Structure formats: C-alpha cells, structure tokens
TrEMBL record:
GO terms for molecular function: metal ion binding; N-acetylglucosamine-6-phosphate deacetylase activity. This is N-acetylglucosamine-6-phosphate deacetylase. The keyword Isomerase does not apply. Keywords: Carbohydrate metabolism, Hydrolase, Metal-binding. Residues 50-383 form the Amidohydrolase-related domain.
Length: 389
C-alpha cells in the first residue's frame, strides 16, 4: 500500500560514509528516511543495484547534437538527455558573445522552462579571460562593471557564475560584485602569478574550473629553481576547490591524485566535470561548435578537438564515465568517487545542505547503477526521468 505518496527503493545505498543494503524512502520530492527495515509503503526492489546521489556537472556546453549556445530549444533538449547519464543538476555553460548580445541571449535562456535535469545557475566561461583557449577572440575583455551588472541581471532568477582570469587588468574591482550573495566565482584560462591568484582568492574566488587545463606553467627565471604560479597558489589554499576533466587526456591521473592529496584538509574541495561539447555521448564524428567552428572526436568519450588546428575544445566525457574513471584511475571506492560528482559540486554551489547526499531532508535526486556502474534509472526531485530499457 502506498502511504502519503511515499515510495521506498530497496537496493545498495551509497551513503556519505558507507555502502549499506537497505531502503531509501521518498515523498514529495524529498528523501524522508533511509533504513534497513522495510517501510509501510510501496517498495521498488532494485535488487543488487547501487543507489547513489545524483550527479552535478558544473561545466558543460553540450551533449549529443545539442549546444547551450544554440539557444532555448537546445537547452530544453539537454535537460531531457542528461538524466540518461545520471546528471540531476548542472550549470549550462556559455561561450562569450559580443557585449550586449551576451546579456540578451542569457536573458532568453534564463527564462526557459525545462524538464528533467535541473538548471542550478548559468556558468559564463568568459568574457573576463586572459587566455583564449578554444573560446575565440570574444573571450577576451577588460574589466567592465556595467557588463557584469547586465549579465547578473540577465541570469535572474538564476545566478550568473563567472569564470575569470585573476590576471585580467582591473578584475579585482569586479570580484566582490560577482561574489555577492554567496555566488561562487571560478577561475580558469590564466597565467596569473601567485600574488594575483592570492588576491583573487581574498576577494571571493573560491573555485578553479577545468583545473590544470589552460593554466600554463610559469617560465623559469632562475635555472634549477621551480617557478610557482596559479596552480601552486590554488593547491596551497584550503579555501579553494577545484574540478577537472578526468578523460585520460585533459589531466593525467597523477595530477588528479595530487589535487586529492593537497585538498584533504578542506572537505568537498575536489570535483569532476565533463566540459562536454556538442557530440558528447555519440559515436565519433564531426560536429559544429557554433561560431567557434567544427570539432571532432576520435572515439566515443574522446576529448573534442578543433577541426581547424587539432587543439582541445572541451570533451566527449559524460558524468557516468567520469565516475568510472575515478574508481579506476584514482584508487577510490564508490563512496569516495561518488562525492566527486555529487556532494562536492553541490558544496561549490552552496547547495550542500540539500543536494548531493542520500540523507533525510535532502532532495530526492538519485541514480541507480548496475554492477558495471552503468546508469539504469535517474530520479530528480522524486520523479523518474530515465529508465534504461
């Protein structure tokens, strides 16, 4: 008998500290109980499948043939596609556009009604970046307070989450505005000095996205002396979290392990992202990255590369594969690895008290995985949005 719209799921539950066989009970989009005894309501028996917290992706441009930068209709489809990869919440990530056009486009996206994976804010990768990377000349802009105000307003009712370079001239004047009301600010695409990075941290930057990538090594000024820059300043500061693209190309697993060791004192300081581009999740081929040209993938899950010059342009990684790679390459158990794709990114967004854990009172966002860690079902706010046939 179903009681008060309660449903219980029987399986192997990945809690915040252990793996337990038991029942996860939900009602009204929330988790209301986790226990070893069967509750007095309908039970869905998942057998020996794992029940893990839903995945949260802080950095994703596209999936399949859809691209956030193509507009509202593509965003709607992305929200419908992502549950098959276990993603229950994400930051749609935008490449920079010309001033004025960027705020107008963001305003359109922010008002889009979606179903499926929850939009948790909009990630603006630019325009306040020092190094272009694959983002094109539009990524480069000097500090512009009016532009920041316009983008923050355009993102409402969501938050505009800026990725900036600490070495952009005048950026220090804008960081308190970007970080207002507890909004996270990310850093990336930078050759900042230790001092520039430390100043940005003091002014509110608390996260580094696709860490190590487009963080060039400082030049050697004294033979035999290893130089330090943004990477070292970030690793040394317990307040700063990092994410990286664990696809085997963007970041060497040794570097990923170094981050895990460096950040042990700060809870929730290491996350995984996909930085997925259009074409991710599909068989290898060539796809259009909007105004930034065509990209291609050598194999399924490969990094995206520009057709023009073969430079990296995002990835073909999906979050379920990122979880598998963490278990395989980082010597983590499933409890530890699942935190990198769920509770840690929730904490980065200030949502760690309601998302990212299987815990009473939290949102009923969870994923059912088989013994190979393949996604069987995905539930978002207590509603099933994907079931593998």
């Amino acid at each position: 008998m179903q009681r008060n719209n309660q449903i219980a799921f029987k399986g192997i539950i990945i809690s915040d500290s252990e793996v337990v066989k038991g029942y996860l009970t939900t009602s009204g989009g929330k988790i209301i109980d986790i226990g070893e005894s069967p509750p007095g309501c309908d039970v869905i028996d998942l057998g020996e499948s794992y029940i893990t917290p839903g995945f949260i992706d802080l950095h994703i441009h596209g999936i399949h043939r859809m691209l956030v930068d193509n507009g509202a209709e593509d965003l709607k489809e992305i929200c419908k596609i992502l549950p098959q990869y276990g993603v229950t919440g994400f930051l749609p990530t935008l490449a920079p556009r010309p001033k004025g056009e960027d705020a107008e486009f963001l305003s359109e996206l922010s008002k889009t009604e979606t179903e499926g994976t929850e939009v948790l804010g909009f990630h603006l990768e630019g325009p306040f970046l020092k190094i272009t990377g694959a983002l094109g000349a539009g990524a480069i802009s000097g500090a512009d307070e009016g532009r920041v105000h316009a983008l923050i307003h355009a993102a409402k009712p969501h938050k505009a989450i800026f990725s900036i370079s600490p070495d952009v001239d005048g950026i220090e004047k804008l960081l308190p505005l970007m970080a207002a009301n507890g909004t996270p600010v990310f850093m990336t695409h930078t050759a900042a000095t230790v001092e520039q990075t430390q100043l940005a941290i003091e002014l509110g930057v608390r996260h580094a996205t696709h860490f190590y990538d487009v963080f060039p090594c400082p030049s050697v000024s004294e033979p035999g002396v290893r130089p330090c820059g943004a990477v070292e300043a970030i690793l040394a500061d317990e307040r700063v979290s990092v994410d990286f693209i664990l696809d085997g190309v963007h970041v060497d697993p040794v570097a990923a392990k170094m981050s895990l060791i460096s950040k042990r004192k700060g809870p929730g300081k290491v996350c995984l992202v996909t930085d997925a581009n259009v074409g991710a999740g599909l068989e290898p081929g060539q796809f259009s990255f909007g105004n930034l040209g065509d990209i291609c993938f050598a194999y399924k899950g490969a990094p995206a590369r520009s057709v023009k010059d073969n430079t990296l342009a995002g990835s073909g990684l999906t979050m379920d594969r990122a979880l598998k790679n963490a278990v395989k390459w980082l010597d983590l158990d499933l409890v530890q690895a699942s935190k990198l794709v769920s509770h840690h990114p929730a904490q980065v967004l200030g949502l760690g008290d309601k998302k990212g854990l299987l815990k009473e009172g939290y949102d009923a966002d969870f994923v059912v995985l088989d013994e190979n860690l393949d996604v069987l079902r995905t539930w978002i706010n207590g509603k099933c949005f994907f079931e593998r046939k």
